[in-house]
Amino acid sequence: MIGGIELGGTKCVLAVANNPLDIIEKRIIPTKDPYSTIPEIVSFFSNFNISKLGVGSFGPLVLNSASADYGLLITESKKNWKGTNLVKEFSKINEEIAIDTDVNAAALGEYHYGAGQSSETFVYVTVGTGIGAGVLVKGEPHIGNFHLEIGHMLIPNVDNFRGVCRIHGNCFEGLASGPAIQARWGVEASELSINHEAWKKEAQLLSFGIVNIISNHSPDKIVLGGGVMNQKHLFELIRLNVEDIWKGYTPLGNISNLILEPALGNNSGIVGSLSLAL
Ligand code: ADP
Ligand code: ZN
User: Fold this and answer.
1) Distances (CA, A) of 87 to 64, 93, 235
2) Structural domain spans, the chain
3) What is the pTM of this model?
4) Which terminus of the chain is less hemmed in, N or C, by CB atoms within 10 Å?
5) CATH number belonging to domain 115-262
6) What is the atom index within ligand 1 of the atom nearest the CA of 178?
């Protein structure tokens, strides 16, 4: 049996499985502060005998396994979590741990088991509490020097919205994440009606970011997941906007084959986290 943890900004998904697609038990708990949430996670796994643990977590966190700080959350991206060392904390569950960013994990999930199969340069973007993207080149996460933080790139902010990023204010995530939608319109994103003008704005903001991702990585597949992308009508708006902004500068192929829904639904992250344990 293997264990998986998807540690998100709002919720944490825990699972034990025979393999990533064969989950035996799964639990979703809210991500509160580390003092209460970590013991809750450890306690969930205490009933199971797992051989290895795969963790996909929000960051920024140290991924270099040679570092003494391997697994350390280094920035106050979520209140109270800076300074928590996830590898140290989760070694109470099992000493065998593989950790990556939540978005690299989700990208691996979709690449191996979902919509990213056979993609050469694959990008998984999550639009949830934050925005992040995992970039896989031939199935391997592109880490770079620390790791990518695509949610914190800058995009046009035509109406000078203040933005909600705890660090930068009006970066991509600060303008287009779920909490940014709520801050802009005063209503929780999931409560907005499908006809609300918020969605046209959201599609435009997401398209700015996606065009930047295309410019930087030239992916052949981009999967958009995370809570906000449960608004399925966004996909068509985003495809139209991206084509409109890109203006055929390089061929994008059939845009419906480039910008895709996650084949694993809301399970990309936990399936990918489990796959890290293989
Ligand atoms: P996490 O960031 O913890 O991984 P999610 O990906 O579910 O979790 O992101 C949570 C965010 O997604 C919240 O801001 C919430 O408002 C938004 N969200 C969740 N469900 C929906 C929905 N059906 N429509 C629009 N926004 C949603
Ligand atoms: Zn930011």
Assistant:
1) 12, 10, 36
2) 2-101+267-276, 115-262
3) 0.97
4) C
5) 3.30.420.40
6) 14
